[in-house]
Amino acid sequence: MTQGAKHGLPTTLGVGEVARRSGVAVSTLHFYETKGLIRSERTVGNQRRYARAVLRRVSFIRVAQRVGISLADIATALAALPPGEAPSRRDWTRLSAQWRAELDERMAQLKKLRDTLDDCIGCGCLSIDRCRLRNPGDRLASEGAGPRRLLVKQRP
Amino acid sequence: MTQGAKHGLPTTLGVGEVARRSGVAVSTLHFYETKGLIRSERTVGNQRRYARAVLRRVSFIRVAQRVGISLADIATALAALPPGEAPSRRDWTRLSAQWRAELDERMAQLKKLRDTLDDCIGCGCLSIDRCRLRNPGDRLASEGAGPRRLLVKQRP
DNA sequence: CTAGGACCTCAAGCTAACTTGAGGTCAAGA
DNA sequence: TCTTGACCTCAAGTTAGCTTGAGGTCCTAG
């Protein structure tokens, strides 16, 4: 074990420790660091030391990715927070508000996708085009591009 | 317009028409076809003709992608349906059941992500590690890999 | 003091999901 | 008939998000 974690909690974590605890590869942590998603201090011997908060940050990144948010967007959001410690209440409120909208939108899409499936059981509208979700007469064709029935909002 | 769509509805659509209506590029439709996500008939002149149902299929693909599902997974799901027309009730039930689980899981993750943000307003736990979501004493460290607080379920 | 596991950097490689480009065909109006 | 725009194929290029490998350093137990 790297730095005396035998008794009590170490104040910082080595890269291997973070990898093990967060479930991502060491190379991924390096990669995230180059992208500015996380950051570290260095020991005299040039080894990375992470604040414990990095674990939560990594969790956040992974979960956000999982629901389809790009690292670039995640980075932008996280950049709103001071990289070191203690974000202000204002920082949090801003980040939360931004993401609220994004997440709510994705939730709506997921819900729609799921409900579509539910509605279609026993109907087969996806391929036979005949159920209550059907687009009658294809009237929407002139309303611009994009999947209009399922899509809640397309990004620019 | 390609095939007499002036009056009434054409029974099939050209690739450009599908692109315009679905909001994806022609090249993307070609690509999806090579991946087996959609399929087409050909005219004597070797041009693609799509059944109208392809529009719904493309919508489905895009929305599923948007919430983080890979084309491979989408292909697998869609492969459960007969490529041509009229899936049976059994087909639909199977597809729906599979996706229900997947979608519910992602919904749960999104919700958790969103709620975490909500809870953290004015607290800053993401980086100062001090709020009701805090991981006390880091006790979870030995429970295996992965972000345990936010993550609902990791894929293998 | 020395072995070996944990770290370091940097460059190159890989997969998914498309896009772009070259070179050629099809089809419908002037 | 000629032309023009929609279409075709196939190969190569692009971006995101990592992983792998080579070659070298750090540090802790024995």
TrEMBL record, chains A, B:
<keyword id="KW-0411">Iron-sulfur</keyword>
<dbReference type="GO" id="GO:0006979">
    <property type="term" value="P:response to oxidative stress"/>
</dbReference>
<keyword id="KW-0001">2Fe-2S</keyword>
<dbReference type="InterPro" id="IPR010211">
    <property type="entry name" value="Redox-sen_tscrpt-act_SoxR"/>
</dbReference>
<protein>
    <recommendedName>
        <fullName>Redox-sensitive transcriptional activator SoxR</fullName>
    </recommendedName>
</protein>
<feature type="domain" description="HTH merR-type">
    <location>
        <begin position="12"/>
        <end position="80"/>
    </location>
</feature>
<keyword id="KW-0805">Transcription regulation</keyword>
<dbReference type="GO" id="GO:0003700">
    <property type="term" value="F:DNA-binding transcription factor activity"/>
</dbReference>
<dbReference type="GO" id="GO:0051537">
    <property type="term" value="F:2 iron, 2 sulfur cluster binding"/>
</dbReference>
<dbReference type="Pfam" id="PF09278">
    <property type="entry name" value="MerR-DNA-bind"/>
</dbReference>
<dbReference type="InterPro" id="IPR009061">
    <property type="entry name" value="DNA-bd_dom_put_sf"/>
</dbReference>
<keyword id="KW-0479">Metal-binding</keyword>
<dbReference type="Pfam" id="PF00376">
    <property type="entry name" value="MerR"/>
</dbReference>
<dbReference type="InterPro" id="IPR015358">
    <property type="entry name" value="Tscrpt_reg_MerR_DNA-bd"/>
</dbReference>
<dbReference type="GO" id="GO:0003677">
    <property type="term" value="F:DNA binding"/>
</dbReference>
<dbReference type="InterPro" id="IPR000551">
    <property type="entry name" value="MerR-type_HTH_dom"/>
</dbReference>
<dbReference type="GO" id="GO:0046872">
    <property type="term" value="F:metal ion binding"/>
</dbReference>
<dbReference type="InterPro" id="IPR047057">
    <property type="entry name" value="MerR_fam"/>
</dbReference>
<keyword id="KW-0238">DNA-binding</keyword>
<keyword id="KW-0408">Iron</keyword>
<keyword id="KW-0804">Transcription</keyword>
